[in-house]
Amino acid sequence: MSEPLAQELFPILTAVDLPAALGFYRDLLGGTVTYRFPETGEPEYVALSFGAGQLGIGRQVDPGPPPEDRTALWVYVGDCDAAVARLRAAGVPVLAEPAAQPWGERMAVVRDPDGHRVIVADRGAAGGS
User: Which of 12, 13, 115, 125 is deepest in the core (most CB within 10 A)?
Assistant: First the structure.
């Protein structure tokens, strides 16, 4: 069996009203914001921790219907380009090629067998060009 690709997984929800989502997940459910982008001004994305679990929430003005655009699974890998090449070779549909992101990570988007978006990313250290 080959080396596992995934090093870390967490779900990401899309919110039309990010402050309301934060009110629910942070203020009511007790999540702790561990990351926000951008660092100042209105956030476009926040990550929250719940004990050992994580949840990401991204702001989107006009999200599509579930599961097309409202939820995604984020998967951290050692090298985004190599992981996408391996997934493509296995017949996995690639929706967005690996690309550098302004927050320093490299990411791509693929579809799982049920049509859910899976974001494949590395933290930039091992990513390709």
Answer: 12
